[in-house]
Amino acid sequence: MRIVCIDGESQYYDIVKRDVIEPLAAAGHQLDWFEERFADADAAIARAQGYDGIYIIGDQGPLPERFLSEVPGLKHVSFVGTGAHRFVNVAEAERLGITVTNVPDFASRSVAEHAIALMFAVARRVPEGDRVVRAGDWQKNQGIKLRGRVLGVVGTGAIGREVIDMGQALGMDVVFWNRTERPEAEAELPARRVTLEELFRMSDVVSLHLTHTPETEGLISAELLGSLPGKAIVINTARDEILDREALFALLREERIFGAGLDVFESEPPQLDQLPVEQPNLILTPHIGFHTDEADEVFAIAGQNIVAFAEGAPRNVVRSAAL
Question: For the chain, what is the radius of gyration of the CA atoms?
Answer without folding.
Answer: 21
